[in-house]
Amino acid sequence: MSGRENDRPGNDRPDARPDELIEHGQVVLRRYRMDDLDAIVQTVTDSAAHLRPWMPWAADYTRESAEEFLAGSIQGWDEGTVFNYAITITTTDAGALAGGIGLMRRIGPGGLEIGYWVHRAYTRRGLATAASAALVEQAFRLPGVDRVEIVHDELNVASSGIPRKLGFTEVERRPIELPAPEGSGVGVVWRLTRPDPMPRCTVARAVS
Ligand SMILES: CC(C)(COP(=O)(O)OP(=O)(O)OC[C@H]1O[C@@H](n2cnc3c(N)ncnc32)[C@H](O)[C@@H]1OP(=O)(O)O)[C@@H](O)C(=O)NCCC(=O)NCCS
Fold it and tell me: Which domain holds residue 168?
């Protein structure tokens, strides 16, 4: 497929998917597979106290929760509704599961939402920012996608740093459907819109 076909907003090809393996700076994102089960149980368990305040799914996390999540991730990918990745790192502990990130089709036509978490031992190294930047690029390569959003509880200061660093704009505050245990229940919605392609005459001038 040519890049120009992909650039056409509204060209909703249901078979279009983001890459399954993405290298971006210090992170490698890899589509989840069923054999991530042990690693994901271990990582979430290790980080339980860090995740529970903000991720409702982290409460009472079990092996069955992880199995359900991985099966749902595989199915969601096949159906084109959710694209979940393991975050691994290239620098130290190469290949270790350092967190998770997903692109979700749940904010209406033309939009994809990003959600993320990072193992407590790997925070504050720019991983969530790098992984989100990688998925923003992927999202805007998909046909018909013209906006990416990140939503977090207004009290989740750590999470707000990622959209801010990536140039998202805060567009709305609204109640969160499934509130975080330590949140206020008010979600901050950040949005990044698809950059317009350069006008053809500008491109011609730029390369001449
Ligand atoms: C939120 C979370 C994913 C951030 O991951 P991370 O890889 O540490 O984030 P980054 O290193 O890319 O940080 C980007 C920016 O966010 C802000 N930030 C991150 N952690 C922060 C913290 N603990 N306190 C204040 N600001 C923080 C900073 O502005 C940071 O930039 P800086 O380090 O240059 O100052 C991680 O803390 C986490 O997993 N939290 C629990 C789960 C969660 O809240 N997920 C999001 C739900 S919406």
Answer: 21-193
Rounded Cα gap, residues 115 and 143, in angstroms? 21
CA of 168 relative to ligand 1 center, distance in Å:
15
- Substitution site in 89, 152, 162, 177 for ligand 1 pocket (most atoms within 8 Å of beta carbon): 162
What's the whole-number mean pLDDT along residues 101-127? 97
**Residues 171, 107 contacting (CB under 8 angstroms):** no
Residue 142 lies in a domain: yes
The proportion of the chain whose per-residue pLDDT surpasses 90, expressed as a percent, equals: 83
Query: For residue 27, how far is its CA from the centre of ligand 1 (angstroms)?
Result: 15
Classify residue 144: in a domain, yes or no.
yes
Query: pLDDT digits over 144-173, tens only?
Result: 999 999 999 999 999 999 999 999 999 999
Neighbouring residues of 56: CB distance < 8 A, sequence distance ≥ 6 = 178, 179, 180, 181
Residue 179 within a domain:
yes
Q: Is the CB of 158 under 6 A from ligand 1?
A: yes
Domain tally, the chain = 1
Domain CATH for 107: 3.40.630.30
Q: Is residue 9 part of a domain?
A: no
Compute the distance between CA of residue 189 and CA of residue 30 in angstroms, rounded to an integer: 26
